[in-house]
Each structure stands twice: as C-alpha cells, then as structure tokens.
C-alpha cells in the first residue's frame, strides 16, 4: 500500500524547455552548448553545480571561459534560467488535495541559480508562497549534495524521511532516474509527455 509519494520537479509540476536555454546560449555565441549540455552527465561543471560543490560565481566564470565572446554574469544567468517556463497551477492545486491522503515529498536535480529563480516565480504566478508548503520534505540536489539517479540518493531520502521503500511511489519524467529507485525498493511511474499528475490513479500503484 502506497503511503508516500516522491515527486520530481521539472517536467512534473513545473514546465521546462531546454531548447530555450540552448537558443539563449547560441545568441551569446556558443553554438555547441546543446551538445555540451546533452553530455553534462559526464561534464564536471554541471555536476559540480547541481551538487553544490561550486558557487554561482565559479559556475559563471568557468562557463564564460567556454564562450567565444565575453558575457556578463547577468547574461549567463538569464540564458541559464531561460529553460524555466511556468508552474503547472492545476498540479499545484491537486497536490493540496492529495496531501490529505498521502505523505508528499519532492526530489529534484537542480542548482542554486534555478532554485532562486523558480522560488521567486511561485508567488508571482500563483497564490502560493513556498514550495515546501506542499511537501513534508523537499530535497534539492545542490542542498543535499546528491543527484538522481545514484542509488545512494534514493537511500538517503528514504532514511532522511524515515519512510519505507515498499510504501513509496516515485514519479519522474526521466526514465534514466527510475531503475535505481526501483533497485532501492521504491515503486516508480514515468510521467509521459502530455500526462499530468492529476490524471493518475494513485490507488492502482
């Protein structure tokens, strides 16, 4: 029986479009940014940012060194944040109802730059003020110094929350994040394009 649900953030309760960031960096003169970012699993720059090993300024400095043209930190920040579109308001409203029946949690691979942006975006776009209000706990990779899909990340959140894997459902829009969650004993659901969390039958898991 499912008692706990862990949600991903981007692509699940928040709309994102990586193409917007690729295009923004192209305008800054970096034509190969898409290729580099697509391979970021192996690039220490992005992993270091997402696990909180480097500061925003260090990220901008290292990123700027890769660009053919000089760019200000503000330009880099705007390009980096371009992928962040909007909250799925209906999904947020649904979470308020769902939390009456389940223990809700959030687990996101993100970084301090994006976190600052989408945290401010919440109160601007909706009547809500803090993402943490929807969840018992929210884990952000740059704060816990761990990323999906490492199995240690799932083991960490289970232990930190004091919940049982067999009673937990994890919902993510990236298939690569699911196998290790399943190895940790967590039930999973891949949120497909066009599918919304409010469309799911939670009693079926």
Structural description of this entry:
By secondary structure, the protein is an alpha/beta fold. The protein has two domains: 4-15 and 86-204, 3-Layer(aba) Sandwich (Rossmann fold); 18-81, DNA polymerase, domain 1 (Orthogonal Bundle). It contains ten helices and seven strands. The chain has helices spanning 18-27, 33-38, 44-50, 56-64, 73-81, 89-98, 112-125, 141-144, 151-161, 179-183; strands at 4-7, 14-16, 84-87, 103-108, 137-140, 168-172, 187-190. The strands form two sheets. Strands 5-4-1-6-7 form a five-stranded parallel β-sheet. Helix 1 (18-27) packs antiparallel against helix 5 (73-81). The relative contact order is 0.19. The mean pLDDT is 94.
Give the SSE map:
Elements lengths: L3 E4 L6 E3 L1 H10 L5 H6 L5 H7 L5 H9 L8 H9 L2 E4 L1 H10 L4 E6 L3 H14 L11 E4 H4 L6 H11 L6 E5 L6 H5 L3 E4 L15
